[in-house]
Automatic annotation (TrEMBL):
GO terms for molecular function: GTP binding; GTPase activity. The chain holds residues 8 to 187 of 230 of the full protein. The keyword RNA-binding does not apply. The keyword NADP does not apply. One of its GO terms (cellular component) is nucleus. This is Ras family protein. Keywords: GTP-binding, Nucleotide-binding, Nucleus, Protein transport, Transport. Coiled coil: none annotated. Belongs to the small GTPase superfamily. Ran family.
Length: 180
């Protein structure tokens, strides 16, 4: 018999860092450009096989715009895992990610697994076909990795667009959350 475990996960981060796109890539294996900002929050699920068990991810996709900040505690309450996302080409979004990490470490369940995720690496990995798809990296990998290590976070750099490392974030979270 296959054992099924449920895992409640919340994704947080500044508006437009790519949270909805990232979840869409994980769940539907596609990238849709030009999305509307999330209003309130979205809820998505995906069941993944992991060894002899199935893990059902119950994911809250929060809205990054500041006016929705006060809703966040409703979504991280009782969460076993959180993804805190920033855009590697926008320095201020990294600052915002650090703020979310501090808030989670103060207010979320004590044993929550947090993954720091720098998204949009496709914009600065030198593989673009034209200049409109390039941007300068503003947060260096080493700096983010060092911060993640100091705060005991999982750390990844990803692209929702080019499907880089998306699946890996969820696999690693599942490995680190104590499941029933
Ligand atoms: P809110 O809902 O406002 O919190 O935003 P969000 O974080 O969910 O961002 P969303 O997924 O709506 O993406 C914002 C913009 O970034 C869209 O135009 C996406 O197409 C684009 N985008 C998302 N991920 C990537 C990526 O990995 N690479 C590139 N180049 N663009 C991306």
């Amino acid at each position: 018999d296959v054992v099924q475990s449920q895992l409640k996960l919340v994704i947080l981060g500044e508006s437009a860092v790519g949270k909805t796109s990232f979840l869409h890539q994980f769940i539907n294996n596609t990238f849709v450009d030009k999305r509307e900002p999330t209003v309130g929050a979205g809820f998505l699920t995906k069941t993944v096989d992991s060894g002899d068990r199935q893990i059902k991810f119950n994911v809250w996709d929060t809205a990054g715009q500041e006016r929705f900040h006060s809703l966040a505690p409703m979504y991280y309450r009782g969460a076993q895992a959180a993804i805190v996302m920033y855009d590697v080409t926008k320095e201020d979004t990294f600052g915002r990610a650090k703020m979310w990490v501090r808030e989670l470490q103060r207010q979320a369940p004590a044993n929550i697994v947090i993954a720091l995720v720098g998204n949009k690496v496709d914009l600065c990995n030198g593989q673009q076909e034209n200049d409109n798809d390039t941007a300068e990296r503003q947060t260096q990998t080493e700096d983010a990795a060092r911060y993640a290590a100091e705060c005991a976070l999982l750390f990844f750099e990803t692209s929702a667009k080019a499907n880089i490392n998306v699946e890996a974030v969820f696999t690693e979270i599942a490995r680190n959350v104590p499941l029933e």
